[in-house]
Amino acid sequence: MKKIVRSVCPYDCPDTCGLLVHVADGRAVKVEGDPDHPFTRGTLCPKMAHYERTVHSERRIITPLRRIGSKGSGKFAPISWEEAFERITANWNGIIAQYGAEAILPYSYAGTMGIVQRNAGHPFFYSLGASRLERTICSPAKGYGWNAVMGQTMAPHTNEIHNSDLIILWGIHALATNIHSMHDINIAKKQGAKVWLIDTYETPTAKIADRMIIVRPGTDGALALGMMHVIARENLADRDFIGQHVQGYEELVTTVLPKYSPEIVSEITGIAVGTIEEIARQYATAGAPFIRMGSGLSRYSNGAMNVRTITCLPGVVGAWGKPGGGLLTGTSTDAAFATNMVTHEEFQEQPTRSINMNKLGQALNEVLDPPIKSLYVYNSNPAAIAPDQNLVLQGLVREDLFTVVHERFITDTAKYADIVLPATTSLEHSDMYRSYGNYVMQRAYPAILPVGQAKSNWEVFSLLADAMGINKPFFKQSPDDLIDAILAKPSSWLVSTQLETLQEGRPLELSLPDGYKTQFRTPSGKIEILNPQEDDILPNYTKPHGDNAEFWLVNSPDMRLLNSSFNERPDLTKNNKMFLQMNPDDAGKMGLKDDQLVIASNERGEVIFTLRISAKIPPGIVVTEGIWWLEHAPGNRSVNTLTSQRLTDKGNGSTFYDVKVNVRASQ
Ligand SMILES: Nc1nc2c(c(=O)[nH]1)N[C@H]1C(S)=C(S)[C@@H](COP(=O)(O)OP(=O)(O)OC[C@H]3O[C@@H](n4cnc5c(=O)[nH]c(N)nc54)[C@H](O)[C@@H]3O)O[C@H]1N2
Ligand SMILES: Nc1nc2c(c(=O)[nH]1)N[C@H]1C(S)=C(S)[C@@H](COP(=O)(O)OP(=O)(O)OC[C@H]3O[C@@H](n4cnc5c(=O)[nH]c(N)nc54)[C@H](O)[C@@H]3O)O[C@H]1N2
Ligand code: SF4
Ligand SMILES: [Mo]
User: Which residues form the 4Fe-4S Mo/W bis-MGD-type domain (predicted)?
Assistant: First the structure.
């Protein structure tokens, strides 16, 4: 029997595409982009064009497993679900009796973005009284920087781009991470818009840009101040808009901007004085300049300040007042319905400690009271994606750590598990999705039955609640019951006529209030260049941290992967080498040759890469793309051996790109 089922891409990607899944005899055989989805518009990225190969991969875990080799060896034997639950509860009950439930740490992030399956562990671990995980690995510094200037102001609709005449892609590798924005950018380009890209090297996204500015890592805040210096000096600011809508411009002009002449900013950023002046003038005189800001520049010790500073720019030139003008870091649809109906924080009876997910390595190796005696991992692959890999692996190998991993594949993390549980893919379970890059939301029903004995996160936590004696009726619901309950209490943003669209599993675009672009939801009601709540009431330039080593290590997304997901796909990863890209002059000075093995190292460890010499990389920087499973790593260590657990200036975020390394030939 054949059918076509609507579904949603579950991955941690701002596009949150609508899918049409072709099912034949109970198997997904083909996946297409939904032409009716307003952002997807019928196309998919290379990863999801063959999602059926992930769903029906030979590498899927199809039964629960018990470890029979040493930790990390990946040797397992199948067991029943009953035995898996017996082993987990026996271990946990023993740990709780001796150390208390805080000795158990959940670790999860964004394997799936659906609100039920992503958050399913929260009510369970709150009820258990386990340690909390501070989930700040992605972009809290970006959120912080935006909020410091714009408060809760609504982000612009992506269609604004159509009417822009100057689009700046700032720290975003849009071809890899936001590919459907190309539809919008192309509409603008056809009408004559120019595209500028600001990045640390010439990424593949440079192909679609008219101009490229290469900035020294972590110095974008200085560039923004330099642009504002030129705008003020040349009287290009929008005085009317500022008078009506901006707080603190005069103070910025008199106390901060004098320190950031183009000459000084050129020293900091490595950008020519003339280029700083040119982009400032073009930005200020454009009819409707639009900035699409990525997370790259926020993953530094000065990340929140970088974002805060750039976020001031559209206010200074009045871009918010013009159709097609503005700045997009990401959208928030939190207000559409109550996620708390899934997470239920109040199930936690007593305060428990919180462990920052960026510091897993430290937490597993430090003497803590109580120590972490059990780790439960779902929706995440910390052995690959968390910083300071050596320390993370040193923790995972501990014989006294009882590790459970609920996964679709034997990832680098699953190899260290005592018990592995098989997880469903998004085609096998129900969920509701909302996006962080647009305003479309969609409910999805299962397209096929679970593969093998796989169970969804929700199902596993319901069963674990029962096995651990947590007798709340909440856990007896199905995911669809829960989604129905959430939709029965929608916010005014979701009106009842629209709910039918959601119930039918069709994409629904939330409408934005008239005039939202100039409704500034800050305490003052204005754009707060001066924010009296901040330690530094005005934005300023602060330096990134770096390390005591020679090259900045930029580690960007790879088009074929999504974080460490899709490593299971030979069609995407075949013949891959973990490349380290380097400028020809740097390679020449060091006598290094193309395609030879090199070692990148710093105080945290060493990683072996294959050298790729490329003029697209500026001197002083090396670049690696993608988070590869260790099976692709010639030295059995991957990029996060080199990254640091240090946190951002605000938001406790990750600082993945604020890292330096030395490079030498591998013998
Ligand atoms: N194909 C693919 N898509 C993805 C992902 C993936 O791994 N692969 N990951 C997903 C996730 S979880 C997220 S959070 C988003 C993130 O996607 P984006 O918001 O695009 O952010 P990043 O991918 O972190 O970084 C984008 C760019 O920032 C650049 N960069 C680094 N440092 C600086 C700097 O100091 N200044 C400037 N101007 N640029 C800098 C990097 O070179 C990179 O090209 O993408 C999602 N989509
Ligand atoms: N060096 C470096 N490191 C980085 C980054 C970087 O740019 N550079 N980016 C960082 C960022 S922005 C992020 S967001 C993090 C992301 O880190 P993670 O969220 O851990 O992302 P993934 O590596 O995709 O791992 C998700 C895992 O969840 C599993 N999964 C998928 N669906 C389900 C499900 O329904 N149930 C269960 N139980 N499991 C499921 C997948 O098989 C996959 O192995 O990585 C960070 N790490
Ligand atoms: S990974 Fe992103 S671009 Fe690709 S299908 Fe999913 S949501 Fe769309
Ligand atoms: Mo992320």
Answer: 2-59
